[in-house]
Amino acid sequence: MLEHAKPDQLVELVLPYLWAALADGRVPANICVDACMTLRHAYGQLGVRAELLPVDLAIRNKDGSGTRYGSLTPSWTGTSWNGHCVLVLPDSERFVDATVEQFDEVREIGMGPMIGKVALSIDGNPNGSLMEPGTQVVLQRGDLTLTYTVASPEALASIVEHPEAVAHADQHRRTGVNTASFALAAFRVETVRGRAMQAPNPRLRALLRAVGDVPYEADDEHNVRFCLPDQGGQEQWLRLDEIPLPPTTPASWPR
After folding, report:
1. What's the number of CA atoms in the CB half-sphere (13 Å) around residue 115?
2. How far is CA 18 from CA 42, 58, 193, in A?
3. Pairing state of beta strands 136-141 and 114-117?
4. In this structure, is residue 5 part of a structural domain?
5. What's the rounded Cα separation, in Å, for the pair 3 and 25?
6. Domain interval for residue 78
7. How many domains does the chain have?
8. Mean per-residue pLDDT for 69-77?
9. Dist CA 140 CA 59 (whole Å)
10. Do 8 and 195 form a contact (C-beta atoms < 8 A)?
11. Which terminus of the chain faces fewer neighbouring Cβ atoms within 10 Å, N or C?
12. 230-246 pLDDT, tens per residue?
């Protein structure tokens, strides 16, 4: 992905795969809400707007048999959310399912997160959602057909307003910043940097210029810091969201 993605694809395609690699063996595969909350901040740190989208998912085999996951009317059972959640990237109209491999039949194919194109309905949508409830997105993975059906705005509210999501908001942001930091470090590689600097993300380009080739480190909890000189030339280890950028740089998402 790093070697071959086009400039306008780098951030949007690499982050879900990076998250999956970092999460492997550390968190269960079915934490779609946590994954989406984390990736929303990771995308946002690099200048890409990402929004949560609750969905119902039907996976159909080549012979017509299949299984339905998620729900159009999701709910919580204790700390578990009984539904499925993906991300939509409005500026590029991409659809990201970072945890699709929680489903056995998809995991057996072994291709990682699902990323596809969608048609958004921002203009004239009275409820303000990016996609009308009931809209279907159909994607192919091997011999499987995945049909995502968009749930209602109430389903989204059931995620973001739930005490469990609110209680972990700071953790989601911190993990998202760290994920974006690892991505930024990867984008500095000689074979990638040129394309990254051509990406349509002013914030990403500003961050790449700010960190240059300075060293970075990650502690045992994956908290990443870059070593940057202060005005007096003294070393200071800064998190990605602490790095000073030119005043014209777009703010991170969510805003």
Report:
1. 18
2. 11, 26, 17
3. unpaired
4. no
5. 25
6. 10-171
7. 2
8. 87
9. 10
10. no
11. C
12. 888 899 999 999 999 99
Indicate the pLDDT class of residue 29, thresholds 50, 70 and 90.
very low
Check whether 123 has a pLDDT greater than 60: no
- Pairwise CA distance, residues 223 & 174, whole Å: 8
On whether residue 116 sits in a domain, the answer given is: yes
Nearest partner of 201 among 250, 254, 253, judged by Cα: 250
Q: Are residues 55 and 163 in the same domain?
A: yes
Greatest alpha-carbon pair distance for the chain in Å reads 68
Q: What is the pLDDT of residues 47-59, one digit of tens each?
A: 999 999 999 999 9
Judge whether 252 lies within some domain. no
Chain-centre distance of CA 230, in angstroms? 31
SS3 annotation, the chain: CCCCCCCCCHHHHHHHHHHHHHHCCCCCCCCHHHHHHHHHHHHHHCCCCCEEEEEEEEEECCCCCEEEEECCCCEEECCEEECEEEEEECCCCEEEECCHHHCHHHHCCCCCCEEEECCCCCCCCCCCCCCCCCCEEEEEECCEEEEEEECCHHHHHHHHCCHHHHHCHHHHHHHHHHHHHHHHHHHCCHHHHHHHCCCCCHHHHHHHHHHCCCCEEECCCCCEEEEEECCCCCEEEECHHHCCCCCCCCCCCCC
Nearest of 183, 186, 209 to residue 197 by alpha carbon: 209
Contact 209, 20 (CB under 8 A): no
Task: Read off the CATH number of the domain in which 57 is found.
Answer: 3.10.550
- The number of C-alpha atoms within 13 Å of 85 and in the hemisphere containing its C-beta is 28
Q: How far is CA 247 from CA 202, 203, 206, 254, in A?
A: 12, 11, 10, 18
